[in-house]
Design goal:
The protein is 45% helix and 22% strand. It is an alpha+beta fold. Strands 1-2-3-4-9-8-5-7-6 form a 9-stranded antiparallel sheet.
Length: 293
């Protein structure tokens, strides 16, 4: 794992025009997205406040047939509020979109400065971990690849799932291959507000009844009938006190599948925060080496 990465591009000033050009070159259409957001916001606001404005004006016309300017202004209040909300939504969406474009550009520059691979968008990424088989609209973004003796891939992943009104789920992920033949395991952190990850449907895994500090930090799913073996494996590797303490600092979910190690986090991992990169790469490397020992 490179220990001399230059993290300065992650926080360096960015020309917004360059960030916009980079986004367009990679298939993003920020102006189109903003126009769609404005159109639908206006449509919803017009429909919603139309239901208020028409009855209110009818009421005012019947109750105050000779009403003055004040009554007329009161009748215009709902559309005015609706217009204000549309403007607020568009402004916030514009700021959010601009910040997102700049983040993409900074991560791309970080990868380029250090000779790392970078892909801004990857549709339907081919990964064996369970969350990559869930839902629709599966897409990875800001995918950074590090070559060398310890290849690493870090990115953001999102998918949509749900029966009717689909909800979008977002995960930061990091993965590296392992030189070890290990069972398929999913370790879900018990920390609050971290969600859960699931194994792919190809393997039949069950919740294992483990003991010790590691079992207090993670709920573990693995192959049936191998609980003692897995308990011993985890106790000498991932459940070592030093690693458990580091996992507790910024909780991650862990999956071992097809001789690969995965970290998953509800917080961004491919990010513009240098400290996140330093901590993540060190922890991923140390965890992999412990599993291979």
């Amino acid at each position: 794992m490179p220990d001399d990465l230059d993290y300065s591009p992650l926080t360096a000033p960015v020309d917004p025009a360059a960030a916009l050009a980079h986004a367009k070159a990679n298939g993003d259409r920020p102006a189109r997205d903003l126009a769609c957001c404005a159109f639908f916001s206006a449509l919803v606001a017009a429909a919603f406040f139309g239901f208020l404005s028409v009855p209110l004006n009818m009421y005012l016309a019947g109750t105050y047939p000779d009403g003055g300017v004040g009554v007329r202004l009161l009748g215009l209040l709902p559309p005015a509020i609706g217009l204000g909300l549309v403007v607020a939504v568009v402004v916030l969406r514009h700021r959010s979109g601009r910040r997102e474009l700049i983040d993409h550009y900074r991560i791309m520059r970080f990868a380029g400065r250090n000779g790392l691979g970078y892909r801004m968008k990857v549709k339907d990424p081919e990964q064996p971990a369970g969350i990559f088989y869930i839902g629709i609209n599966r897409c990875a973004s800001d995918v950074v690849g590090i070559n060398g003796p310890r290849p690493v891939e870090v990115g953001q992943y999102s998918y949509t799932a749900g029966y009717r009104n689909g909800e979008t789920y977002r995960w930061g992920y990091a993965t590296t291959p392992l030189d070890a033949d290990l069972p398929h395991l999913v370790l879900n952190s018990r920390a609050k507000r971290t969600g859960t990850v699931t194994a792919s449907g190809g393997d039949s895994l069950g919740r294992l009844d483990l003991r010790g500090p590691g079992a207090e930090a993670f709920s573990v799913s693995g192959p049936f009938g191998r609980t003692p073996e897995i308990q011993a494996l985890l106790d000498r590797t991932l459940f070592s006190p030093d690693l458990l303490a580091r996992y507790a600092e910024r909780p991650v979910h862990i999956e071992l599948v097809e001789n690969r190690l995965y970290f998953f986090s509800p917080e961004p991992l491919s990010t513009t925060d240098p400290d996140t990169w330093r901590r993540l790469l060190a922890l991923l490397t140390d965890t992999a080496e412990r599993l291979e020992s």
